[in-house]
Design goal:
The chain has 348 residues and is of the alpha/beta class. Helices cover 29% and strands 20% of the residues. The protein folds into two domains: 4-172, DHBP synthase; 248-347, 3-Layer(aba) Sandwich (Rossmann fold).
Length: 348
């Protein structure tokens, strides 16, 4: 398949390109588009055939459901059974990096939801994503636009490397702002009332969610490794994720101890290191991949996936990185990195 790549320089002057991309979606084709989180691999969410194509292009198991993207949170009720809690979440966080799981309406085929009776709905804030969904006139099903198992793409170059020849069109809208995938919550109820189950942490933090819903329960798979016989609440959590080919080891310890360990390792053999900016002067430049200042979690989120891809090209036998804190945006970093490292944490 020939993949057409279109660079969007000015979102204000993109309507002809967007109309062509929307036509591709409507005829069942695949268009990669930028969002504020990561790039998405989009197809018509109401078409079982488009879902099949998405799974094939990504090399993804078809029991791993797709998020459907809408142009306006008010459209969610056409595809899912929304409720008051959804409306409050939408008012607080949409458009933006939040995905909400709700019971599915029949117009969304089971092939899109991986056979589940629920559907994940998100309304992205990126102007290109918004314009594409609005012009398509159908909700757009879109997983992250990477080959299954590699880090999510945060710029068009990552997408081109993974999916060139496998999709009809790629819209290049520059670097993704946040750099980690959306926060995913499920709306739940028990005898004490409503609550949110956090299935995947992202740009909308637990603290922010707690302002809208008092009870937020973090699903075990967010931080822990599930036993082989345990079923995660979100099918995606059972798959190996964000994994560079080079083994990743997360270092847990005091700043000075970690630095001393890294200096010793660098002297012994070449290694790749996702380091904080403050550590640059104390380490050798070979293999160093700075991710931002220690306290700047947003910069680290923005840099992480690109740096993991780069680290994999260095020919090192190991990639070292810091174990992130679990607070605020740190929880999203922790969740992605613990998977990239296949839960390998070294205490130093
Ligand atoms: O930021 C994002 O969410 C990006 C952009 C493109 O919007 N999309 C994304 O999609 O990360 P994907 O397919 O890579 O990850 C979606 C996750 C998967 O782990 C999937 O299992 C879970 O959402 N998911 C989707 N529908 C679900 C459902 N009905 N119930 C439980 N989990 C669901
Ligand atoms: Mg993904």
């Amino acid at each position: 398949m020939q993949t057409e790549i279109i660079t969007i320089h000015d979102p204000a002057a993109m309507s002809a390109d967007i109309d062509r991309a929307a036509a591709v979606i409507r005829r069942g084709g695949l268009v990669v588009f930028p969002t504020e989180t990561v790039y998405g691999l989009g197809g018509d969410a109401t078409s079982a055939e488009a879902a099949r194509r998405i799974y094939a292009a990504k090399g993804r198991p078809s029991d791993n459901p797709l998020i459907i993207h809408v142009a306006d949170p008010a459209d969610a009720g056409r595809y899912a059974h929304t409720d008051d809690l959804f409306d409050r979440l939408a008012a607080a966080f949409m458009p933006g990096p939040l995905t909400v799981i709700m019971p599915r309406r029949p117009c969304i085929p089971l092939s899109t939801t991986g056979g589940l009776e629920t559907v994940a709905v998100r309304c992205p804030s990126h102007p290109v994503a918004h314009a594409l969904i609005a012009a398509a006139g159908v909700p757009i099903a879109a997983p992250s636009a990477n080959l299954s198992g590699s880090p999510s793409p945060t710029c068009a170059a990552h997408v081109i490397k993974d999916l060139s020849g496998r999709v009809d069109m790629i819209l290049d809208g520059g670097e993704a702002d946040i750099g980690l995938e959306s926060t995913i919550v499920k709306l739940d109820k028990d005898q004490h009332g409503e609550y949110l189950t956090l299935l995947r942490p992202g740009g909308i933090t637990c603290d922010a969610l707690s302002c809208v819903c008092e009870r937020v329960v973090i699903a075990p798979a967010v931080c822990e490794q599930l036993a082989a016989d345990q079923r995660p609440l979100s099918p995606g959590m059972k798959y190996k994720h964000y994994a560079p080919k080079t083994p990743v080891v997360l270092l847990d310890g005091d700043g000075q101890d970690v630095l001393a360990f890294l200096q010793k390792e660098q002297a012994a053999a070449p290694c790749a290191i996702l380091c904080y900016d403050e550590e640059i002067p104390s380490l050798r430049p070979e293999g160093l991949l700075p991710v931002g200042k220690r306290a700047d979690l947003a910069a680290q989120a923005h840099a992480l996936f690109g740096r993991l891809r780069e680290a994999d090209t260095l020919g090192a036998s190991v990639i070292y990185a810091h174990l992130p804190p679990k607070e605020g945006l740190g929880l999203a970093l922790y969740n992605r990195m613990i998977r990239a490292a296949a839960h390998t944490v070294k205490k130093v």
